[in-house]
Amino acid sequence: MKLASLRAIDAFVRLGGTGEAAQGLGISQSAVIKTLRQAEEELDLSLATTIQGRLVPTPEAQSLVRQAQPLFGALRRARHEADMIRVGMVNRLRVATVPGLAHSILPPAITRTRRALDESAAVEIMFDHVREHLATGEADLGISYGPMRADDIEDVALGQSPLVCVLSRDHPLARRTDLSRGDVEGERLISYGPDGVSASDSFQEALTSAGLSERVAITVRHTDTACHLAREGVGIALVDGFVISSNLVEGLAALPLEQSPLVTAYAHHRRHSPLDRAARLLLAQLQERSGS
């Protein structure tokens, strides 16, 4: 079977329709349908069925992709690597991170690392699925609220920070020097959801210990989204204090949460794969920047 057929089947099942697959692959919908029909003949398997006027994956197609997920994952990685080679980024520093830390401790560390390498380091930043990116060799370093506690992954504590409340300067609480749990009890709270990659998520543990996890009304993935919502007066953003080092809180009030539990930022790398110079430099910069 041709690679194009495998890619079409994967996209069709993963995205849920021929139109979505066509958009994801950058080809016409008719080309996707034709490829699926050819694959059905070759495999002697029904891959698509019509429901309410649109083609959707059959249970057989879903089972095929589920069982062949390592193959489809390897195919996507190979395709991505080919794209990177084509644009001259074969030798690059690859970092997988969660959005909350990508906006705070990561940018200055990358800047200093590139400066140490005479600006010669190409960098690729991938969001979420940190453990998967590391396990498959797609990332050199990972950053999350971990730890992962996996036999094949080394967890490196970078530093700790309390929770902070970010709110519009027009907010009635903005003139306070700090806020307690009681102060935010009746407020609309904005914060992150679980990262989904760690054995224990230190940010979620801090929220729970502070008695605020059940009070979050708006869940976001990105710190800038939380800060923009706070800026618009939608509510109070509960984020980690690392964000204070960024310009996201410029024009906003950032107040420490009284008696806040600490959030720990972690770096991760594959235990038995030595880091190259760029990755070692970035890890050192992350540790220095975070105070570990």
UniProtKB/TrEMBL annotation:
<keyword id="KW-0238">DNA-binding</keyword>
<protein>
    <submittedName>
        <fullName>DNA-binding transcriptional LysR family regulator</fullName>
    </submittedName>
</protein>
<keyword id="KW-0805">Transcription regulation</keyword>
<dbReference type="GO" id="GO:0043565">
    <property type="term" value="F:sequence-specific DNA binding"/>
</dbReference>
<keyword id="KW-0804">Transcription</keyword>
<dbReference type="Pfam" id="PF03466">
    <property type="entry name" value="LysR_substrate"/>
</dbReference>
<dbReference type="GO" id="GO:0003700">
    <property type="term" value="F:DNA-binding transcription factor activity"/>
</dbReference>
<dbReference type="InterPro" id="IPR036388">
    <property type="entry name" value="WH-like_DNA-bd_sf"/>
</dbReference>
<feature type="domain" description="HTH lysR-type">
    <location>
        <begin position="1"/>
        <end position="58"/>
    </location>
</feature>
<dbReference type="GO" id="GO:0010628">
    <property type="term" value="P:positive regulation of gene expression"/>
</dbReference>
<dbReference type="InterPro" id="IPR005119">
    <property type="entry name" value="LysR_subst-bd"/>
</dbReference>
<dbReference type="Pfam" id="PF00126">
    <property type="entry name" value="HTH_1"/>
</dbReference>
<comment type="similarity">
    <text>Belongs to the LysR transcriptional regulatory family.</text>
</comment>
<dbReference type="InterPro" id="IPR000847">
    <property type="entry name" value="LysR_HTH_N"/>
</dbReference>
<dbReference type="InterPro" id="IPR036390">
    <property type="entry name" value="WH_DNA-bd_sf"/>
</dbReference>
